[in-house]
Design brief:
Length: 258
C-alpha cells in the first residue's frame, strides 16, 4: 500500500491515511487501497475495533484530491465517486466497530470518511466542512446523504450551501462528533473506548451495529422486524447464556466472541 499505514495491536486495527504532503487528500489509488484493506479486515476475527485517522498533526483528511479531479471528465468524476461509495459502504458495514480519530482538518471527503465510521472522536483542533460548492462540485463521497442523517436536513443544508468550517465543539454540539478531547489525548481516548467495546459480547455488538445500520435505511416497522430477527439470533450465543446467568448469579460475566 502506497498511501495507507495499517497496524494491529490488542484486537484494534489502526488505519492511517498517509499522504501528509497533500494533507491526506483521497486520490483514487488511496480509495482503492482502502477498499481492499477494509475487505481484508472484514474477514479477520482477531480485529474487533478499527480506528481510522490521518497522518501528521494538521489533517485527518483535507478532502478528495483536487489535483486529480481538476482535469477529470464527468465520467471520471462519477467513477471516483462510485469508488468512494464502495470503499465507504464497505467500511460502514464491516462487522467490527469503527472509530474516526479526527486529528485536524476533516474537509469534504475527509468529513465524509469520518461519517462512514460508527463513532467520531475529534481532537480539539479538528475542523469540519463540506467545501465542495466552492469548487463547482457537490459532496460526492456520501456527504449529501450521511450528513443529513447525522445532523438533520436543515443543518446539513446550511453546512453544504455555506461551506462554513466548524470547529470540534460545534461539531459536538450538532451531533457530528461524539466527543472532543485535547489533541494529545485523541489516540488514548479512542483506544480506551475500543477497549471498553471489546470487553462486551462482540457478536452482540456486531448484531446491534447491523440492526442500526439496516434500520436507518428502511421504515420503522421493517427496522423493528429486522431487530426482532437479530434479537432472536443473539439467543443462540453462549454469550447470551453466560451474560444472563452471570447477572442472576451476581458475578462478572466471562463474555467471549459468540
Ligand atoms: N487535494 C489535493 N491537495 C490538497 C488538498 C486536496 N483536497 N488539500 C490540501 N492539499 C495540498 C495543497 O495543495 C498543498 O500542496 P502543496 O504543498 O504542494 O502546494 C498541501 O496540501 C498543503 O496545503 P495548504 O498549503 O493549502 O495548507 P494550508 O494550511 O494553507 O491550508 C487547508 C489547509 C485549509 C486544508 C487547505 O489545504 C484547503 O482548503 N484544502 C482543500 C480543502 C477542500 O476544498 N476539500 C474538499 C475537496 S473536494 C471533495 O472532497 C469532494 C468530495 O466530496 C469527495
Amino acid at each position: 500500500m502506497n498511501n495507507l499505514l495499517f497496524n494491529v495491536e490488542n484486537e484494534v486495527g489502526v488505519i492511517t491515511i498517509n499522504r501528509p504532503k497533500a494533507l491526506n487528500a483521497l486520490n483514487s489509488e488511496t480509495l482503492s487501497e482502502l477498499k481492499q484493506l477494509v475487505g481484508e479486515i472484514e474477514k479477520r476475527k482477531d480485529i474487533k475495533v478499527v480506528i481510522v485517522t490521518g497522518s501528521g498533526e494538521k489533517a485527518f483528511v483535507a478532502g478528495a484530491d483536487i489535483a486529480e479531479m481538476v482535469n477529470g471528465t464527468p465520467v471520471e468524476g462519477r467513477q471516483m465517486c462510485l469508488l468512494a461509495h464502495e470503499a465507504f459502504a464497505k467500511l460502514e458495514n464491516i462487522p467490527q466497530v469503527t472509530i474516526a480519530a479526527v486529528n485536524g482538518y476533516a474537509l469534504g471527503g475527509g468529513c465524509e470518511l469520518s461519517m462512514a465510521c460508527d463513532i467520531r472522536i475529534a481532537a480539539d483542533n479538528a475542523k469540519f466542512a463540506q467545501p465542495e460548492v466552492n469548487l463547482g462540485i457537490i459532496p460526492g463521497f456520501g456527504g449529501t446523504q450521511r450528513l443529513p442523517r447525522l445532523v438533520g436536513k436543515g443543518r446539513a443544508k446550511e453546512l453544504i450551501f455555506t461551506t462554513d468550517q466548524i470547529d470540534a465543539q460545534e461539531a459536538y454540539r450538532i451531533g457530528l462528533a461524539n466527543k472532543v478531547v485535547p489533541k494529545d489525548e485523541l489516540m488514548s481516548t479512542c483506544l480506551k473506548m475500543a477497549e471498553k467495546i471489546i470487553s462486551k459480547a462482540s457478536y452482540a455488538v456486531t448484531l446491534a451495529k447491523s440492526a442500526i445500520n439496516t434500520g436507518m435505511d428502511v421504515d420503522l416497522a421493517s427496522g423493528c422486524r429486522f431487530e426482532s430477527d437479530l434479537f432472536g439470533l443473539a439467543f443462540s450465543t453462549n454469550d447470551k447464556k453466560e451474560g444472563m446467568s452471570a447477572f442472576l448469579e451476581k458475578r462478572k460475566a466471562d463474555l467471549k466472541d459468540f
